[in-house]
Amino acid sequence: MATTNRSSYRQIDSEDRGVASVGVATIGVASTRSDGIKSKLQGTASQDHFAWRQSNVPIFRACSPKIRNDDTGDFNGSCALILEVLGPDAKWNGRMHMSEDDHKDLLRMIEEHANFVSGTGESDGELSLEELIAFIDEEANRHTLLTDYPMSIACLASKDLVQETFVHVDKDNNNKIDLKEWSTFLHKLHNLHLTYLLVDAFRQFRAFFGRGRTYVDNLVKVPNGMSSSEADIKSLKEVLGMSDNTPVATEAEEVAHGAELGPPAGMRRSISDEYQYRSEKLSRFQVGLDREFRECWEDFWYYSANYHPLHGIFSAAPDSILSWRMRLALEIVTLTFSYFTFWLAEYNERRAFLNIFHEDPEHFANIIFFNTVVVTLPGMALWWTLFLLFNCPRLGVVDEALSKKEDIEQARRCRCLGIVLASLLIIFVVGGVVGVSFWRDLGWKSASLRVLRGRTRGYVISWFLQAFVYFNPLIAWGDTGETPTLFGTIGDLIGLGQWRIERQKFKLRCSKQLKAWEERQICEAELRRDGAWRKARKRPVWKVQREEGGEFTDYGQADGELLECKWRSWKESQEDDARALVKKFQRKYVIDLETMTQVSHYGKKNEKRLKIMRDVPLL
């Protein structure tokens, strides 16, 4: 099995980069079946498409903006951090670095599990694929990975992904990896996780990638003399500009300086004040010059390279949703459609209805307006319809390491449906235009100049929208706090000042996790004291006492996971009263974490409370 998998992986990884995929939702997993290789990529459905994405490099590669090294596949440190923080569903746990000691700890934990299962008690410093798979199979081990390590280690929960990466790094083909190969193995998983996050960012039309920022050099390296936890805290402070050598401004000093301007020069807010400011005091509709607008150029160029209909043909990233070939095909279809719409308006003598600036139809203002209405706008509408169908935003990609099988299948169905609809639309447009051209002269020669001018106007409008809507330096509209609102959600959908809003969300989540590190360090110290740090721990079980004096019964898995998430958020916020209540639990209850009760008819005369408990089972 290992030999077969090794062969299949290297057929796909032709550049020997060790990256399982670089493309459409490419957190790839290629698994071997008796009937051949069946690709389980999150954004593709076949090995051929998988190999095709590997060769998807831009035409002007040297001029293409990048956030990762083309040769090694490694990500820029600051861009990688932003991908982690702004990942889907805000699942980031505040951890980002992994040191060599962390690699050793994880290898030791897996070996100890293997020794316990086999009863041998021997450790040879090497890890077999069977030992790793057996470790992953236990829920307690997966819980420890997601709690004590960065989110990139969540990839270990995917057996197929682990298997394919394992056989790639096992260079001596002995079905075991030593410490050096183990570090390489974890590095490959880290890059795969970031690739998934990057593709998800493309699907969500992310504007803020942090290009040109220097928050952190490398997430896979820890400065000498530091633990990974200390490196995480240092990086979070760097993001927020909170040097330990900078004095903390009092509230009076900040008010005197101007609350909207922040603390006085040479001073900073406290960690709690920084989180409170970013979670409560930033407006959802902001008017005024963005103080960091000069730093948006590199992200603007990257955004344009991946979303602009013309620029994307030449400079789109290899990880982007569509290859340059597909983008060129979309442009040809759009131009073909533009000839048809121009002919249709001329054939139905609609020009007279569009002479709104002058009686003469050949007046330059009428010509511009006519071309805009019948060529530019319909072409832009068709291009974006096709792009969105192929892209399938918010529905077509999930993290296989963290998602349920039904969610993975649903995402695959959404992608397939989008591709089918886009393909049918292309066939309808091209077939219809070709059919009409046999019946009528569409003016392929006489109308070419006007069609090309109309389409060029579409390129200019696209750049205008990017510069003055998504990267608007004066106005921003969107949710900046942790609790979404209808007003903020509408702003997010419109995208006005999107780059500014996403940057503020990034710093909000960083301030939240920096504040949470105080509680997290206490928990870490307790686990170290009890000898349970980075050892298998079962997930806590939440229970409710249905009758006074009766036995406690377990909540369902989904309810238990929700309560555990809320409880951790409450503890990490240092038991903030605003986070003590979990409202609309099971649609009819309120959970009071401070009193550990489940409340029905909350705040009414017939209020009823049932005791709940958080049970941490022993192994």
**How large a portion of the residues is in β-strands, by DSSP E?**
5-15%
Helix content: 40-55%
User: Which ranges are low-confidence, i.e. pLDDT below 50, for 5 or more consecutive residues?
Assistant: 1-53
Strand order in space, largest sheet: 8-7-12-11-10-9
Coarse morphology: globular
Mean pLDDT: 77
As a whole number of angstroms, the C-alpha radius of gyration is 28 Å
SS elements, strand count: 12
Query: What's the story with the biggest beta sheet?
Result: 6 strands, antiparallel
Number of H/I helices = 20
Structural class: alpha+beta
Kindly, what is the distance between the CA atoms of the first and last residues, rounded to a whole number of angstroms?
32 Å
Give a quick set of tags describing it.
six-stranded antiparallel sheet; globular; 12 strands; two-stranded antiparallel ribbon; alpha+beta
Could you characterize what this model shows?
This protein has 619 residues and is of the alpha+beta class. 51% of the residues lie in helices and 8% in strands. The chain is built from 20 helices and twelve strands. The strands form four sheets. It has a six-stranded antiparallel sheet with strand order 8-7-12-11-10-9, with helices on one face. Strand 11 (597-600) and strand 12 form a beta hairpin. Helix 1 crosses helix 7 and helix 11 packs across helix 19. Residues 1-53 have low confidence and may be disordered.
Secondary-structure blueprint of this entry?
Blueprint: H1 2-12, E1 30-33, E2 36-39, H2 47-54, H3 77-85, H4 100-118, E3 127-128, H5 129-137, H6 139-148, H7 159-169, E4 176-177, H8 179-203, H9 228-240, H10 251-257, H11 271-281, E5 285-287, H12 297-307, H13 311-315, H14 324-347, H15 364-391, H16 405-439, H17 448-470, E6 475-477, H18 486-494, H19 498-529, E7 541-545, E8 552-554, H20 557-572, E9 581-585, E10 589-592, E11 597-600, E12 608-615
Antiparallel strand pairs: 1-2, 3-4, 5-6, 7-8, 7-12, 9-10, 10-11, 11-12
